[in-house]
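User: Fold this; tokens only.

Assistant: Input:
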Amino acid sequence: MEHADFNQGLLEFLNQSPTPWHAVATMKAKLDEAGFQALDEREDWSLAANSGYYVIRNGSSLVAFRTGTGDPAAQGVRMVGAHTDSPCLKVKPNPVLRRKGYFQLGVEVYGGALLNPWFDRDLSLAGRVTLQEASGQVRDVLVNFRRPVAFIPSLAIHLDREANSNRSVNPQTDLPPVLMQAPEGDATRFEDLLERQVTEETGVCPRRILGYELSLYDTQKAGFVGLHGEFIASARMDNLLSCYIGLQSLIHTSGEQPALLVCNDHEEVGSMSAEGAQGPFLSAVLDRWLGAARGRALARSMMISADNAHGVHPNYLDRHDENHGPILNRGPVIKVNHNQRYATNSRSAALYRLISDELGLPHQTFVVRSDMACGSTIGPLTAANLGVTTLDIGVPQFGMHSIRELIGAEDGHTLFRVLVEFLQRPVVL
């Protein structure tokens, strides 16, 4: 897959995936196109050699795998992990606020979001709606308003003279977005707006809305930035970028070696869910695929957990260890933390460096400052749950957890090339 095609596909994927449910639906379509077969956890599975399959749980997490041409117990499984969720603002169950003729929504902060960048943006709504059809059947549908329908206006500096030196954000009182003006006595329900959107998008006329999980998102499209187009800016780069890289790597691998991609939901809030990395999803799939050979297969396996890394910010150089400041467009970042916030060890890092060096591709290393707390990923959770050798790696970026993030236009394709080779190479550790 050429560099230009890779990046164009990335932009399309980011724009099509405003929520984890949309991201998984987009990945499903790509897997279907590549000849992978859907599996249902409620049914029996009959797996064939040299074939591709995928399983979806909750509509927001996905495991896709190639069975390979040989015995997984003898070859091991090459695995790549990422997560589908990103910090955002989610609509509350009873969200409607009416103030001075304005129709607003109460929102809850999901994950560790940078809140200030959410102000003064053209926002839309997307997510999953559970409804009852006229026939009485209950079903889920995806909705995406696409157009700007909401706005969180800043308070003018004339009314807050300390705004540039001392402004904090109260999530309860400062973040409810304005959706429209509603005259006194207006009885519009949020569910009424959802019903109209569902009918417009799907043709389904709901008898009633039973529930929803909806997020606000920035309508500005992903795109190239920089005088020479050397950067890519987008929402949800953390961690849809890694989902896209992992998906394309699995699709483009030879298929001879057993290989797997897992994209979990709920990483940004601790991964403790039925479909999160602390849940049983991946383990259940491996049990059904590998059966009694699971223990021997995993002993020969390796996981690469791909989640973006902190690029050294030129305005805040002191926030990095002086010897471990990753630069955008200088290669993916091997993430190390000896307190096991990252799962990398010398052996897993060595394999990545070996492959990357053989391909003539750059790589970097990140260690957090010793006087700062370190973030984490699905890497340690998966390593602990499966007992598998794991590497944490990621593309360096700016603005992590902001409504708009920035990466180098070279680094995603670099990681893709290494992961393709990793997924089709026997692991020798």
